[in-house]
Amino acid sequence: MRWMAERMEWRGNPVALWPAARSVIMLAEPYSPWDDPLASLSRKAEGTISVYAQGRDYHDLVKKRLKRLGRWLLAQPEAAGHAIKVFVDTAPVMEKPLAAAAGLGWQGKHTNLLSRDLGNWFFLGAIFTTIELPADTPGRDHCGSCRACLDICPTDAFPAPYQLDARRCISYLTIEHDGAVDPELRPHLGNRIYGCDDCLAICPWNKFAVAAREARYACREDLRAPRLADLARLDDAGFRARFSGSPIKRIGRNRFLRNVAYAIGNSGDPALVPSARALAGEACPTLAEAGRWALARLEKGRS
């Protein structure tokens, strides 16, 4: 885990989150993939899950590390009377610009944080503290003329370098977006059923990435190449049991199976027609519509 400190000299940022804070310590922890994240995209009858969600939920693991470091910091003689708060995607903290300001790396053209010795496969966490710490030197941009992350995006979610249109981002659409996905974008989802790693995986700086040391980030075998037909049969209890301890659990069964339905429709596999038909009969209107869309796509392919 790398860490750098950034003095809180913000204007317009959410300092109101904790007005007493005077410094922010930013931390990065690698979760590098164990194989090629793009390889599963060609296996249309199987689902592709973002690398970060293939193991244990990072929120719990990173937060424990932040608290451990925070306790050590407060145990120092010069920290007497001071306090900390830790954040891992749990508050409106601008982790990426803060981490760049703290010298951990720079925000690349795909808007994610990049590092010359970490690549871009790492989680970010923040420790707010009342201790006044010296600021580190901000990171410098090293993207150069490279456009790999922009050109690989299936939905053209980057209107320009360093700009992301979340309305077209597959990670946003499959995780955060509640409701039906624009029919124009559905074919571009492919078999991505939770998140998308294309712009991360293609980055050439990953050749310097540090391997993950935390075994609990390793891919669970049942999430390595889950069969769409098996996922489509999950009821609510089965969904919660299968994704216990996974960040996937938080989006709920209906949204997840909506994604599975889109993947089924993109598979071109006639063997998945019964799965699509079953999803089309679901009580959830969004899920049922996704199932009908998948069924129509598969039946059109058979005609």
Structural class: alpha+beta
Indicate the multimeric state: single chain
How many strand elements? 8
Mean pLDDT over the full residue set: 91
Amount of beta strand: 5-15%
Going across the major beta sheet, what is the strand order? 1-2-7-4
Tell me the major beta sheet.
4 strands, antiparallel
Task: Output the helix-strand order.
Answer: EEEHEHEEEHHHEHHHHHHH
Radius of gyration: 21 Å
Task: State the helicity in percent bands.
Answer: 25-40%
> Helical element count?
12
Please describe what this structure looks like:
- This protein has 303 residues and is of the alpha+beta class.
- Among the domains are: 2-34 and 52-129, no CATH class; 227-303, Alpha Horseshoe (Leucine-rich Repeat Variant), CATH 1.25.10.
- It has twelve helices and eight strands.
- It has helices at 58-74, 95-101, 148-152, 170-176, 186-189, 198-201, 221-224, 228-232, 236-242, 252-267, 273-280, 285-302; strands at residues 2-7, 23-30, 48-49, 84-87, 106-107, 113-114, 122-129, 192-194.
- A four-stranded antiparallel β-sheet has the order 1-2-7-4, with helices on both faces. Strands 3-8 form a two-stranded parallel sheet. A two-stranded antiparallel sheet has the order 5-6.
- Strand 5 and strand 6 (113-114) form a beta hairpin.
- Helix 11 packs antiparallel against helix 12.
- It is globular and about 70 Å long.
- Mean pLDDT is 91; it is low at 7-14.
Helices and strands in order:
Blueprint: E1 2-7, E2 23-30, E3 48-49, H1 58-74, E4 84-87, H2 95-101, E5 106-107, E6 113-114, E7 122-129, H3 148-152, H4 170-176, H5 186-189, E8 192-194, H6 198-201, H7 221-224, H8 228-232, H9 236-242, H10 252-267, H11 273-280, H12 285-302
Parallel strand pairs: 3-8
Antiparallel strand pairs: 1-2, 2-7, 4-7, 5-6
Helix pairs in contact: 10-11, 10-12, 11-12
